[in-house]
Design a protein that fits this description.
The chain is an alpha+beta fold. The chain is 53% helix and 19% strand. It is built from nine helices and 13 strands.
């Protein structure tokens, strides 16, 4: 029996986002295309009306000219219809009663339009369906010849030319819409992948972080439980109970440190850990932090040296800077074998700088890019045991919160140099800054 397929929420999210992205932009394309089609259709219809009106004016002008020429026996008014050639337009001259003059026959809708134009003395626009998907546009206009005689000029056009234009327009818009939808779907999927990639990395990081945190917390809890169970299996002497309780206390302290570090990082990620901005002397804080670890270094057989402690003022959170120095010095002591040394320096120029240089085992080149990851501890030997792998993550956050830079340079077997460079404080009195 095959194993069940694990859920893939991000893959499902990508499909949903791509679908809605494509649907939304498709609707926008369709609405935009529909609006453009309506506008262009209106413009084409207006162009047809304008062309009919212009053709009517040309017919009236030609008729007037032919009437003047008829006085010299050079022509007749009706010749204007024969001589005036306008492509795809049918020309008619009628009297005010709707009787055709040229040509001799005209349809009932044409005659009706001529009569209305003669009565209303206004141009008449009409349409008539003649079957076989053909619609005629009729434009009739009354005019007066130089002799005083009144006629009606009528121009007729088959709207099939508009139909052909509409069909071509629809085909063009349809093809463009299909291409746009395909491109939108492809582009949407690409953009969705790009936009969800940080979320995917964040989810993977969160899962790894939770697994590592559970592992780190499980070990001291298991030790506490084991010690308690062993102590309760039989009656023991008071000194044996004291030894068990001391061991449980050490594990509880380790567990508390992990929880405190996790809580600090969680508050930092959520922006709930305020960072003070106070002008103070960096050398005093670094010296205090280093001296607090001198006993730990002596117990490990490591010499802790304080060198070049010059007066150096910075602006920041003194408590967090102390925590930063404790992390760096503590790491140096942990990774330095007995007989080695850890040197701490503070320099004010060219910028306030703290360096912690140990003579320990160093960090391999392939591990350097990962040392700031939470719970990362690499494969380096830890003669006195490492922490939970959260120290450098906390140090990196403290450095970033102060606008400083933290860099590590290391050579396996030759030690590690940690350098923190702070921004130079603005000149002025030792005021508390907001």
């Amino acid at each position: 029996m095959s194993a069940p397929v694990p859920p893939q929420p991000l893959a499902d999210l990508r499909r949903r986002l791509t679908f809605w992205y494509a649907i939304t932009l498709s609707l926008i394309v369709l609405l935009l295309g529909g609006g453009l089609y309506a506008i262009i259709r209106s413009q084409l219809a207006q162009q047809l009306d304008d062309s009919l009106s212009n053709a009517t004016i040309e017919l009236e002008g030609a008729a007037r000219i032919r009437e003047m020429e008829a006085t010299s026996a050079r022509g007749a008014v009706v010749d204007a219809v024969d001589e005036l050639h306008i492509p795809d337009r049918h020309l008619y001259l009628l009297d005010t009663t709707g009787i055709p003059i040229k040509p001799a026959a005209a349809g009932p809708r044409i005659r009706a339009a001529a009569i209305r134009a003669a009565r209303t003395r206004m141009p008449v626009r009409d349409e008539t369906d003649v079957g076989n998907e053909h619609t005629l546009s009729i434009h009739a206009e009354r005019f007066t010849l130089p002799s005083g005689k009144t006629l009606v000029a009528v121009v007729v056009a088959d709207q099939v030319e508009l139909t052909d234009r509409y069909a071509a327009l629809i085909a063009a818009f349809g093809g463009a819409a299909v291409a746009a939808i395909i491109l939108v779907a492809a582009g949407g999927y690409f953009l969705v992948q790009k936009s969800t990639a940080p979320a995917e990395r964040s989810m993977a990081y969160t899962r790894r972080f939770m697994a590592d945190a559970a592992h780190e917390l499980r070990t001291p809890i298991a030790v506490l439980r084991t010690k308690a169970e062993v102590a309760l299996q039989q009656v023991r002497a008071p000194e044996e109970y004291a030894s068990v309780l001391q061991g449980m206390e050490r594990e509880a302290q380790r567990l508390g440190r992990v929880v405190d570090d996790l809580l600090m990082l969680a508050r930092a990620d959520a922006g709930e850990r305020p960072v003070e901005r106070i002008r103070f002397f960096l050398d005093d804080v670094v010296l205090d932090a280093a001296l607090s670890l001198r006993t730990l270094a002596q117990a490990a057989g490591v010499t802790l040296e304080m060198e070049e402690f010059e007066e150096t003022a910075i602006v920041g959170d003194a408590a967090l800077i102390r925590e930063l120095v404790v992390v760096l010095v503590d790491n140096g002591v942990k990774f330095t074998p007995a007989g080695g040394s850890v040197r701490v320096r503070v320099r004010p120029t060219p910028q306030p700088t703290v360096t912690v240089h140990d003579s320990g085992c160093g960090i391999p080149d392939e591990q350097l890019p990962h040392v700031f990851e939470r719970f990362y501890r690499g494969d380096a030997a830890r003669p006195r045991g490492g922490g939970a792998g959260l120290g450098l993550s906390i140090a990196q956050w403290i450095v970033a919160a102060h606008g400083a830079r933290l860099s590590l340079t290391s050579e396996p077997g030759a030690g590690t140099l940690a350098t923190v460079v702070f921004p130079a404080p603005e000149a002025g009195p030792s005021d508390r800054l907001s």
